[in-house]
Amino acid sequence: MAMNDSAHCDDELGGADALVPVATPIDAPIEFQVSPNPMLLESIPRSKAAGHLLLLVGAYFLIVLSVSVGVRMMYPTDADMELFSSSAGPMVITVCVGMALVSLAVGQMWLSSCSVESIGMSFSQWKIDIPLGILVAGASYVGYFITMVIVASIWPESIKQMISNPRRVEAMLPPINPVLLTLMIVVVAFWEEAIFRGVLVTHLRRIIGGWTLAVLIPACLFGVLHIGAQEPIVAIPLAVLGVIWALFTLWRRSILASVVGHTLFNLGQIYYIKHSANGA
Prior knowledge:
Layout: H1 2-13, H2 46-74, H3 78-85, H4 89-111, H5 126-154, H6 158-172, H7 178-208, H8 211-224, H9 235-252, H10 256-279
Helix pairs in contact: 2-4, 2-7, 4-7, 5-9, 5-10, 6-10, 7-8, 7-9, 7-10, 8-9, 9-10
């Protein structure tokens, strides 16, 4: 019986010879292909990357100038301008200008035979990046708070600006439906991340050849451009946030987590301001 069972097993396994390992020579070593990082923009010459940025900056100033002249023509008196400033008009203009710049940047990538993933518009990992945005928001709050504490300890006079800044932010909020306001904040966060982190960081890295200045320059520019709408001292913590959001963008090769974190950070600020105003 034992011999019959053994023979039966050999038949099922392909015979006794099937149990003998067969040496198969390797013709060539195994190569592991690493997917290239599209955000390196290696297919674009440095001169072309610089041209993209110059065109984008020129378009920004041209659009802002045109909008400013148009608004002034529609609201000629100071009283009219004050009424316009207290409406949803400024935020609507901000949304339109930002999305126009994003459209231009996408067109530049298309004309250069580059995918939108080259400027961080990759959303294939959204199931990871959207929840990760909560972590980005948390890191943003921590970074903002620590930076403000450090600045206040070094320059105590800046505390006055920090205290008055929420009122400046509240003055910018249009009197519109909260759902519509949230949607507009999402769009603003999207275009700011697409331009500052997606376009500027990647193109400056291509021009400079390194990531350090490519991250720091757009972050500082991001902070400086908020001067006027907010107190000047706030430019410092906002620059720190720019660095945080850039690092998450480079890690994920996508702006999505930073867009979510940016949105949650702005909404948290608005909730705090509204809550403080109601409490007062």
